[in-house]
Amino acid sequence: MALGRRGARLIVVDGAEYRWRVRPRPTYCQEMGWSALAFAVERVERGGGDDAAGAGAVLVVDVGAARPDSRLGCPSLSVLPSTVAAAVRLALGRGWRPDRPGRPFLVGPEDWAEGWAKGRSAERSAARGPAEGAPPVPGAA
Question: Where is this region: Disordered (predicted)?
Fold first, then answer.
């Protein structure tokens, strides 16, 4: 499965280039707050003058919060480039192979909670922990 270029953004994480995107419009379930905001990431291979994308497994990340444009005004998040970078690092650490074809690799809210606890540096943890009631998503503002 390949992500379309339209509406996608590029990001470089640890020297590798990735393309990511959030659905431009919410699904009905997302709009009603029944399902969470998600985004997809794939590795971009440069070569031959054209971007070759879609050859490997796609990363699908469920952030565990509603979209900002949900109708019911549920607590929501925006996806920031730092959130995408944290998700890519977390998925790579859990075995995502963006260079090999395969089924989409899923990262859910429970993975974020674990990644949040393990991935934070001691300095940052000592300075401040996650705010009470804040969603456990690295890079969320």
Answer: 117-141
pTM recorded for the entire structure:
0.72
Coil, strand or helix at 28: helix
- If you write DSSP's letter for every residue of 83-115 in order, what string do you get? HHHHHHHHHHHTT--TTS--SPEEE-HHHHHHH
Q: Are 141 and 96 in contact (CB under 8 A)?
A: no
Q: In degrees to the nearest 10, what's the CA dihedral of 61, 64, 67, 73?
A: 180
For residue 125, is pLDDT > 60?
no
CB 140 within 8 A of CB 83: yes
Token pair of 47 as six digits: 């070569």
- pLDDT, tens digit (0-9, with 9 covering 90-100), for 56-110: 889 999 988 878 777 777 777 788 899 899 999 999 999 999 999 989 999 988 8
